[in-house]
Amino acid sequence: MTSADRHLLQELSQKRQQLQDFRASLSRGLQTTLDQCEWSFLPDAGHNGLPLITLRLPWRIFLGDPFLVDLAEQTQQTWGSMDFVLFSGETSEPLRVLNQTLLDRRWRWHKA
Questions:
Q1: Strand 52-57 vs strand 83-88: parallel, antiparallel, or unpaired?
Q2: Contact present, 63 and 76 (Cβ < 8 Å)
Q3: Reported pTM
């Protein structure tokens, strides 16, 4: 095994651990719903180095979706601000949003 192979295996192991840590930080309900989606988590790949979660949802995206709002709340508490890239089954164009946008939208909905 070459040094490059060992480095690649180490990097893959680190990425797998990051995915497991992220998923484990969520509630059981969010873990179950997340398992229905294609997703990835990269700790520093978002805008200005924010953590980034990419989700491919099998349903239509709307920012008031309780799953997205709960995910934003839990990630905010555990990881801080996060950048989301959302894909739906309806389009290949991503929707990029910050978790604070999702949380602000929920606050306005409750206030109205």
A1: parallel
A2: no
A3: 0.77
Q: Read off the amino acid at residue 62.
A: F
Judge contact between 75 and 53, C-beta under 8 A. yes
What are φ and ψ of residue 38, in 5° steps? -85, 135
> Which phi and psi angles does 86 have, rounded to 5°?
-110, 135
Alpha helices (H) along 1-112: 3-24, 28-34, 66-79, 99-111
pLDDT tops 50 at residue 112? no
84 touches 98 (CB < 8 A): yes
For the stretch 84-101, pLDDT in tens is: 999 987 777 888 888 778
Name the amino acid, one letter, at 46.
G
pLDDT at residue 106, rounded to an integer: 54
Terminal CA-CA length for the chain: 62
Residue tagged 């801080």 (tokens): 80
Query: Residues 56, 87: contact at Cβ < 8 Å?
Result: yes
Nearest CA-CA partner of 53 in 104, 95, 106: 95
